[in-house]
Amino acid sequence: MITAKTKICMVIGDPIGHSLSPQMHNAGLKTLGIDSELVFVACDVKIRDMSDFIKGVRAMGIAGVSATLPHKIEIMKYMDTVDETARKIGAVNTVVNDNGALKGYNTDWLGALIPLEKKTELKNKRVGLLGAGGAARAIIYGLKKKGSIITLFNRSLKNANTLAEEFACGACGLDSLEQVLDMDILINATSVGMNEDKSPIDKKFLNKDHIVFDIIYTPKETRLIKDAKEKGAQVILGYEMLLYQGAQQFRLYTGFDAPVEAMRKAILKNV
């Protein structure tokens, strides 16, 4: 039961209506019997309003914030301290309010690595990654730690080149997508396919030897995932990243290990 003593965590984004973070985290809190101590809600925040939002976090004593698209890079500048891993990634998706001091973390990289490593060994695997935003940064960081060979594909070649130079990987524009035919793993870290029947990769570039990972989880199976399955490829659904990054967040927010299966059930019930 929510009381006057219940603390608040929130997920922010623009848009945010698709988010399953509240269902996931609240299921975890209920499973551990601490749902009267903490509640998780969603808040639609425009990037232009980030400064005012952070002032509100401090003023209201919001216990924690989960940042999703498009806030993962912008929110960093408002942190009092940033975890070393998040600093190297250059993006924050998790904020913990420690008595008014805001510390930024990044759990996205583990959220991506855990389901990938359940499918394959990542060392020396050729990975085609679409996108150059905050989520892409975290995924690159994790893959580099595992020794993968990464090529970025992005609508803005300038942004791709900047990121590629920072992380020492390859970069191409979307006019070079035929190169994914030679990749082992394809990852979509763009918003293409969210609540729409579109794919960032033409079906003709997919084959049965690919592992295809779309970090979008609404819908549960995106057009990219459907196309990949039709080609006989192995697939990883976006909710897996949501789950495993959320499990890392849960520990930061509560100090307890996350009840992963209860959180998984909550996601699958609502996706």
Count structural domains: 2
Low-confidence stretches: none
Oligomer: single chain
Order of helices and strands: EHEHEEHEEHEHEHEEEHEHH
Model description:
- The chain folds into 2 domains: 7-105 and 241-269, Leucine Dehydrogenase, chain A, domain 1 (Rossmann fold), CATH 3.40.50.10860; 109-236, NAD(P)-binding Rossmann-like Domain (Rossmann fold, 3-Layer(aba) Sandwich).
- It is 37% helix and 21% strand.
- The chain is built from 9 helices and 12 strands.
- The protein has helices at residues 21-31, 50-60, 84-89, 108-119, 134-145, 157-167, 223-230, 238-254, 260-270; strands at 7-13, 38-44, 64-67, 81-82, 94-98, 101-105, 126-130, 149-154, 170-173, 185-188, 211-214, 234-236.
- A 6-stranded mixed beta sheet has the order 2-1-3-5-6-4. A 6-stranded parallel beta sheet has the order 9-8-7-10-11-12, sandwiched between helices.
- The chain starts with 6 loop residues before the first strand and ends with a helix.
- The mean pLDDT is 97.
